[in-house]
Amino acid sequence: MNTSQLKLGTKQVAVDATWISLTVVVLLLTFFPIYWMVLGSVRANTQLFQFPPALFAKKLTAVAYATILHEGDFLASLANTVVVAASTTVLSIIIAALGSYGLSRYRFRGKRLIQYYILVTQMLPEVLLTLPFFVMYSKIGLYDTKLGLIIAYTSFTLPFCTMALRGFISSIPRSLDEAGRIDGCSALQVFLLIVLPSARAGIVATGVFALVNAWNEYLMAIVLTDTVRAKMLVVLIGSKIGQYDIKWNELMAITVIASAPLVILYSVIQRSFMKGITSGAVKM
User: Fold this and answer.
1) Which residues of 93-114 are buried (b: 16+ CB within 10 A; e: fewer)?
2) For residue 132, what are the contacts with CB-CB under 8 A and spacing of at least 6?
3) Is 248 in contact with 40 (CB distance < 8 Å)?
4) Does residue 184 come out as left (phi exceeding 0), alpha (psi in the -120 to 50 range) or beta?
């Protein structure tokens, strides 16, 4: 091995070591807050403020989890969150799939204007529409209902889901549609039997976006609900922050429980989600 090859090999080793070190640092910065949250949920509230802070707990306790699980509002709030988030996701995907298919495959007057309008709706801040929703829901009887939250959440997730799915469907060759029509399929059958299965990865990606947004949304959840019949889990988390006292271990415990379903779901559909993100990045 000559001197130039040795220098090149040494330089490559240094570059690899640098990237590995940066990756380790990023992982530590990313996972440490999660670790600290889980650790805080199994420690006594007084131990959270000891100095210097202990990175490992000497004594673990499940008091915070027991307190949360025995609260009457927790199970109801968890059920409300599951129903609202799942319904928002399904509704957003169904409407977005139909709309994105029409925008991708058909030419009609005003198509470009509709696309611009969908994009413009993404520029409106959520806080700007919260008061109109509150006034409207108070008059038509949707205030403090799960249906009202589902409609409100869908109105915010639908524009992004539509434009994202349009990118996925546009990447599907039109020759597949034409082959289906030659085989005798109607336009609806082409959409259901050919286009949707081909856009499965994109549907998963946009579905995860809608689910996470509906699961974690706070402003609408606290303004448009009042009682436990429609209270969301994020509102219950916020209630742990009192005016004079913060129950940190309970706050962290309920946050761990609220985060667990999304973490498990992402672990299951990780491959499909990443495939959907990359395949839709070409034509948006």
Assistant:
1) beebbebbbbbbbeeeeeeeee
2) none
3) yes
4) left
Contact by Cβ (8 Å): 213, 50: no
The per-residue pLDDT string of the chain (284 residues; one tens digit each, 9 = 90 and over) reads 556 555 555 667 777 788 888 998 898 888 888 888 888 778 776 677 777 766 776 777 777 788 888 877 888 888 899 999 999 999 999 999 998 888 888 888 888 888 888 888 888 788 888 888 999 999 998 898 999 999 999 988 988 888 888 888 888 888 888 888 888 888 888 888 888 888 888 888 888 889 988 998 888 889 888 888 888 888 888 877 766 677 777 788 888 888 888 888 777 766 665 555 555 444 43
Q: What are phi and psi of 206, to 5 degrees?
A: -70, -30
Instruction: Determine the Cα–Cα distance for residues 113 and 115; give it in Å rounded to an integer.
Output: 5
* Beta-ladder partners of 246: 241
Pairwise CA distance, residues 166 & 96, whole Å: 8
Q: Which of 247, 277, 206, 257 has its CA nearest to residue 49?
A: 247
